[in-house]
Amino acid sequence: MKRTYFRIRNPFASFRKSMLRRMLAVSLFASIFPVIFVGFSSYWFSSSAIRKEVDQANARVLSHASYSIDTALQRVRSNALQMLLGSFFNGNLTEQKWANYAGFYSNLFQNLSSLQNSNAEISRIVMYIAEDDYLVSPDQGGHKVAGEEDRRQLQGLLASREAMYWSNDTFRFMGDAPGGQASVTLVCQVPFQAAEPIGLLLLQLNPSFLQENMTRFSAYPGELSFILNEEGREVVSSAGQLAPQGLYEQAGEHPGQAFSFPWEGRDYLVTALHSSSDGWTYLDMVPLQELNAKSRGIAVITVAIVLVFLLLGAAATAWSTKRLYRPIEHLVSLVRGNREEELLADEIGYVQSRWAELNQATTRLQTQLNRQLPAIREAFALQWLQGHYAHYTSEQLPVLFERYAVPYQHMHAVFALAYDQSPDGSSRFRESDKELIVFTMKNIAQDVLAQQGASGMVVNLLNDQIAVWLWEDTEDPAAWFAQVQELAAGLRTVLADYLKLPVTAGLGDGPGAPGGLPRLFAQAAMAIRSRFWAGTGQVIRSGDGDAGEAKSYPYPFEIEAGLEQALRNGDAAEAELQLEQFAAYAQETLRETERIRTAYYQLLTAALRVVFLLNLSLKESADGTGDETDLYVQIKNVHSIQELNDWFRERLIRPIARKVQQRHHQEYERTFETAIAYIEANHHIDLSLDQVAERCGLSPPYFSKLFKRIVGVSFIEYLTAYRIDRAKTLLQTTGLSVAEVAESVGYQPKNFIRVFKKQTGQTPGQFRETGSA
């Protein structure tokens, strides 16, 4: 009887399961302390619900305020940009100012006043003209920059890389903002996006505009609102005070979530909203004390209700505990399997630990595979394109392709991409950034493939080039290859625009099966190498050039002779025309890179022969490039026909022609000094063009042409003007008669009166009486 009693009183004596014991302990704990537990839970729940509702309401308020402010800022920015892109600001402001100084500043005042009148959010507009060191404002007029500190601040804004941005800095030269508050200023370089701006446009927003939008929907006593910029500095606050220390940092740690923040002995519920338009952070702080006041009454009612239900639930706790444990016991048995180790934790803990071990092992293996797979696939692709798997059989290749996740039965195509250094140095990369350029090209190509939905991979060829390997399951290879060509052309354009470098794409003669891909790649590589004579910055097909046997072509001596003659005459335009004809002949006829280089070496020798025969200094003719050996070294480092032509123009043709022209000009000046002296000494006789030309040793037509080009007027016009000037002097300073004056300057009296009146508008007698000049 006693043994039966103990069997009934202790029904769980045979179960030595830690989870079961804990379930029983929890049930007992729930029956002893239900009121305390449920009271705290209900209070926490109600507080959380209220906080969540308040946070959602504040988020909507902040979103509305952010939208209102962002819309206004965008409108101000758009209006300013519209003004800067108008006809007045889009012209040459410096030329406008010096052409009409008063009109320039009048137009400037009109534009600034119109901008301020059309934007109520703007409290002040200031225009800074750097050349005049002048500040212009539609409401305060214009004045010089007062202090050196303001001048340095303005120069710093001019040197900024950003052409238009919002700033929270203090600008003393703009004066205090209304109400003495901090404000926001839009800084614009003028002209907009010019390489060298000549001035600044500063638009200061009215602080009350921002503050009104932040405080419009405040609903709780002691509620605070702030706007902080990207650096955590205060833009505006609802109470006109500084934001608490650490608030901005904590808002960054809880993006999109409400959080508690203690400040000045009070706890606040903080709601934050980040604006992607201007980068500002909008914050609303509500005292938790105001929120908790609403939840205390709810907590009292909840405790009373829970007491009743807990009494009913306590009776079923012990019975339900055993039934609830059965699925857990079954789960532990499945997870343990045949392992006999002792449970070191409860059943759930054991299941979690075993599950975590399996997940960690799976994740670790998957991560290692994911990290290595792209590099492994790229190494395989590089070796395949270069023909290193040519010994594989037709049975082995499908298995190999499957291993690297490349479809073997599809049609395949490949094209190569190479860059060249920019001849004008406008690229954003230096010549030493080769690895960075290739890395950039590869990443951009991968992004373009993903955007186009193309199947394939990008391979670094380890020679400053990349290859794009594509495949497609298609029944129309020709149409698909046309798409591949379009993709190559589009990708080449994207890379060239981003790198600011000439980029060339090379393709084979069409798509094919995987086994023919190394041949297609070799054709693409050959097309890339042919860019020297075909030209960079384009798409080159392997079949674009001549496929026949190389022929021997004669050197264009007649073009070389024309170039030499043009250099001897100092005619740069004709020399450049001959150079273009030489380049066209080389590109269309010679075609091979080494043959083209040899032809240009011979052309360089011809140009140097002109330098020697004309006894010119090599440094003067080649812009200080050094001696003859340096020129041959320089031409060897040029990489395209276009660069060769540019090099010849800048290093030889134009300097030589300029030197020859200078020498001719000096000779012409000496000749015409003789002509002018002869005219002045013999103007009183019947002087003709032939006489003066013979005096200068030139033919009359050539002398007449050169005289007008150098003096600016014809020989007759110059002689007539000189004679009339001498006649004026004689009429004013002597008592000679008109007939005597006419004979003194080489005219018959009647003819003299007619010419004098035509030149001066008066007869000689009228001129003498009035004394007009």
UniProtKB/TrEMBL annotation:
Listed GO MF terms: DNA-binding transcription factor activity; sequence-specific DNA binding
InterPro entries tied to this protein: Homeodomain-like_sf, HTH_AraC, HTH_AraC-typ_CS
Domain HTH araC/xylS-type: 673-770
Transmembrane segments: 24-45, 297-319
Keyword line: DNA-binding, Membrane, Transcription, Transcription regulation, Transmembrane, Transmembrane helix
Protein name: HTH araC/xylS-type domain-containing protein
Organism: Paenibacillus elgii
